[in-house]
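hey so i finally got around to running the thing on that chain from the lab meeting. sorry it took forever, my laptop kept dying and i had to restart like 3 times. anyway pasting the input first so we r on the same page abt which one it is
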Amino acid sequence: MTIPQYDVIVIGAGAAGLTSAIYTCRKKLKTLIITVDVGGQTLLTNHIENYPGFYEHTPGYPSGPKLMQTFEEQAKLFGAEMIFGKANKLEKTEKGFRITLTNGEQYECRALILTYGKVPRSLGIPGEDKFIGRGVSTCATCLPPSELIIANSSARSIESVTTNDRVLTGDGTFQNVIEKMEREFDGNLIEIKTRFFTEPVSITDNHPVLRVTMKKYIGANYHIDFSEPEWVPAGMLRKDDIVLYPIIKEIFDKDHILISETLGNVLVENGFARNKHETFSAVRLPNKIKMDEDFMRLAGYYLAEGCITSRGVNLYFNKKEDTYIKDVSNLFENIFGVKPTVKIEGNVCRIMVFSKIICDLFEMLFGKYSYNKKVPHWFMMLPAEKQTELVKGIWRGDGCKRNKDFCIVTNSRQLTYQMRDILLRLGILPSINVRKLEQLKSTIIDGRVINFKHNKYHIIVGGPSLEKMSAVIDVQHEKIKLRKHICRHAFFKDGFVLLPIREIKSRHFKGIVQNMAIDKNNTYVAKNFIVHNCDAPLMRNKTVGVVGGGNSAVEAAELLTKFANKVYLIHRRDSFRADEITLDKVKSNPKVEFVLNSALTEIKGDKFVKTAVVQNVNNKDTRELELNGVFVEIGYIIETSFVKGFVKLNEANEIIVNSHCETGYPGIFAAGDLTDVPFKQTVISAGHGATAGLSTYNYLMKLEGKAGAKVDWG
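ok and heres what got predicted. didnt touch it at all, straight out
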């Protein structure tokens, strides 16, 4: 297999890496960027106030992610190629260097620019890796109270969720909420908008999100492969990263329901349900209602076109929709033994069912008004053939066929997300568009004046899902035969939908944020993708250790005191970098014991953490602490093991460079936060990147012996 060849490979895509690529590309050098993310530490900056040319009152005043996005776009504009992966091995070759990634892919270049910055710091001690997820963790925070999560099969605000609820988790199952927690937060929220599911999710910048990256192979057969899923802080995500949404995998069939059990306010005589206070004209209904495909389709009709009045259940159709009118009438008669009244008013056909019990049953199961329509939780887990009929009924009432797709419209946000999850189970990927109330104007449909009081949600199915949707609703779309190719912007894989990130924004937030601990599966779904749960509540009535001396460590210790009986705050010095106001709170808390001038040297246990060995850094004495969990809050490090043996490092593990960004090894240059530059700022990294790019060009020109020359790899 031929190894791809480049003039320059840049490792890292922060301010230094993207700037160096801009300069090498402008010099017509074939440049590849290899990175695990785009933007680096600048992504964590809400407002860029010290980058020349930008200040608070400047038009277009950017956030950190926005500034990095413009860097990326500019680098690509000049021809930089980019792949996502982690460099694992560096080798010298006859013409330059060979880089091997962790997935085994290889690339070669004549010159190398190192610009990758910080990575999360680990303790690097025995037992740390062994007990990750089994007592060793970081404390994830959190979501603003109004953010939606998938709980009891519907999108609900995290503040409304209780320990009586079950939430959708990363493996496609619903699990119990063990504990809720909240805390004061003053920092950056990251707003993440994905393809297809377009309502953004807001999350604190350090909250772990499950992502993959995409690799493309183009040969005889077009093939796309993906990296293994990994947890990444939200602030380190970038546009086009791919987040995962789980498809509900639980299947639970229900043969029937009993009206008496569902409502609880009716009497049963000889197998028939009746009102406690029965009128002369009241019709008794079979108490046992079969949950078959016919009932599902009727439920769909009601969800789309039904409403409840003081007299009964009404459904509305165009008078020309004769097939649907007959179907609804027959379904009511066959299921409940009630013959509806059908009335034509202009172009509108009204189907009326006069039954207090049916009114109560439909309101209980499906909601009364258009904006609160929903299906019961168990509907979400019914077999595919039943869910197909539900979708068919909703489509017939609220669906339309457009030029390139099918579209279903509803006022109910809850029903929108339920429909999304049902369609995913049927192998159909819908997109969701929201039309805000302030954008809507009155309209006339079938002679009826429609005044809007709520947002409208459009559930759109097209592209790769057009064929499956056609089969589900029994309507053939003409576009299927006319199109020559299908564009895929998201993917089904291994029980997940893989959704590229379309937009990332950062904003400052001060107030309460919330998180949860989840049983069996330490994840939940923040509306559109999987996030990690909070490990702190899992430490209730237990003993924990927190390692670190900065704000994150001290804040974690304070949070853990709300759950744990005892918290050891372990720090290798006797002074802290944390803010004094936060440190004072912890010092005054009797649950916290400070273990200073000490380092954690080993974590022990069997299935879970049981003890941790601590050594005094001055006298080397050791002690073994009995604890159930270790929270590692020691910040970030500069990872340079990949290039050891090639470049010189200082005591801080930084690469030593001269004023030309030369490392001392011919052909290897370095710029940005991983070097010994004294100040770590976006503007300094960008300047360093420009120097590295120009120095690399000069180096290659000297190799060729003539200015402006360029190697032809062809």
